[in-house]
Amino acid sequence: MMDRSAWRSAAAGGVLLLLVVAAVVVEPRLRALGVTGIVERFDAFRVVAALSFGVPGLFVVSQRPGSRVGWSMVFVGAAQALGVALGAYGLLGINHGVQGGRLPGDDWAMWVSTWLWMPAYLVVPTVFLLIFPDGRLPSRRWWPALAAAVAGIAVHTLDWALRPVTYVDVAGLYPAGYTGVLAGLRGLPGTLNAIGAALTIGAVAAAVVSLAVRYRSSDAEVRRRLQWVLAAALLTVGLLGLALAVPWGPVIIAFAAVPLPVAVSVAIVAHRLWDLDLLLSRALAFGAVSVVLLAVYALVAFTLGGVVGAGASAVIVALVVHPVYRRVLAAANRLVYGDREDPSRALRRLGARLSDAGAPGDLLDRMAAEVGRVLRVHYVAVEESGTVVASWGRPGRVDAGETVAESVPLLHRGEPVGTLLLGERLRPKDRPLVAELAPHVAVAVHAHRLGADLERSHGRMLAARQEERDRLLYELHDGLGPTLAALALQLDRGRRLVDSDPEEAKQVMGELSGRIRGTVEDVRSIVNDLRPPPLDDLGLAGALAELCRGFAGDLTVEVEVPPDLPALPPPVELAAYRIAAEALTNAVRHAMASRCTVTLRAAGALELRVQDDGVGVGAPARHGFGLASMRRRSEELNGTFELLTGAGAGTHLIVRLPLAAA
């Protein structure tokens, strides 16, 4: 059931159609009276414009009653329909077309018809484009452009209204001696007309610039609407250019009014229903080819036309049509589709970006930008572990949930490493290209992850080195330094007693000898903390065996080492030794274990297992510095640290240290 707005639109459409039909119905009679035909006097253009703007405009306002763009189209269609109907009425009257006599008000009908086309004609390239597609100016700064457009339209309309109807430069319209109304006027002064022309030209230029500004700053939805207008404008220009080159040009000019209103209607009401890229590409190619061919034809006709004739000139131009069309079509495809139509070119450009990139983060930013340019989408982001690590463009409206329209998983060696996020939904024909680009982006994400891991490892290594330096500083400052100072004092005391009290001096020297030996042991202890000597003397297996013998009496330790254990990198040996020592200490101090097993295996990575029969580590709150230290030593070598424990279930520690990375 139709609502009220639909009924009103239908009624208005009926009136519009009635005016156009009335103008067309009298055409045979006007022909019989010798009046110039409807095509030659450009009333056919007005008829087509009335229908092509009026009917879609009424459709738009029936669907969007508040659409200013729709009402602008209704104005253009209504003005053209009324003007052509009044013109037909006036021509019929002034040419004595009804029973040989005049019609009431035919002079004034002709007068209105001669100027009513002007505002309908000028509104389209000025006001209409300024407010498209949402009915508002791009910003307040565009008000001068709108004011210039209105002023220019008013000046030109008033100029035509103040001229006699015979000012129209089309032969065969008026009977001999006809002057019409306002015969004594000559329009506005020339200066005022020049100002009006300048304002109109400026408004047209501003309208075109406003479309470019909207396109650059708008989201995908508005861009697609603007694409419809751009395609229609190019098609209109192409038709007008073709009309200049063929004998039936006025007919083509009449139909040149169709593309723009139809495209605008679709853009406003149903732009999501069709993919415009193909139409836009072909419109660009058609328009460019038309301009090129016209230029070539003019050049050939001017230079060779007198020698080879018009027919041969046309043949020469025809020979260049196909190669020119192919080249222009390829250029139009690159302009509209980017590199979507040429995957090899897209991959070459992506490779160039990879070779130029510096840090892994910069690499991902470059790749996101390149993917965005290739796919012609407004937003591209790379997500790693749920966090966006690189992005390009501007996301859509977050409040409308339009930030991401497509999510493409990124796989490296079969393992997910991240997600490629796209701000627009892909066309089916774009998905194969995305499938080719995704592995390259996945490699970049993997490199970024490795770089981040390396940076974190480097940071931990620097922190560990500083921690070790601090420990040495404390050992030397608080331990060895005061000890050596005390030894020096005792040595001085002994030297003073040598002559006066030799026995006391001997006693001091004896004590001093013992304390020096103790200091030597302290120095050895410090050295052992840096790298235990048993590792160099006995290897990891022997050092662990000696270490375990140190717990005899408190803990029974069994060491299982394969006889073919290969030579290990020193950092791996040291980490395994320290972790095993810490685990055994925890087993005695905290787990109250009585038995413990230390197992070593090596196959690409050194696996260290320490399992005891104690009470376990228990709650996470009990995880102290020792566990953190063991985990840190593992991660410094890109290894893994796994702790299996529970209350009363013993503790099972598994550490894997890669051999290649050490």
TrEMBL record:
Residues 578-661 form the Histidine kinase domain. It is an enzyme of class 2 (transferase). Keywords: ATP-binding, Kinase, Membrane, Nucleotide-binding, Phosphoprotein, Transferase, Transmembrane, Transmembrane helix, Two-component regulatory system. The chain crosses the membrane at residues 44-61, 73-94, 114-132, 144-162, 194-214, 226-246, 252-271, 283-300, 306-325. It comes from the Bacteria. InterPro entries: HATPase_C_sf, HATPase_dom, His_kinase_dom, Sensor_HK_TwoCompSys, Sig_transdc_His_kin_sub3_dim/P. One of its GO terms (molecular function) is phosphorelay sensor kinase activity. Gene3D superfamilies: 1.20.5.1930, Histidine kinase-like ATPase, C-terminal domain. One of its GO terms (cellular component) is membrane. Pfam families: HATPase_c, HisKA_3. Its EC number is 2.7.13.3. It catalyses: ATP + protein L-histidine = ADP + protein N-phospho-L-histidine. This is histidine kinase. It comes from Nonomuraea polychroma.
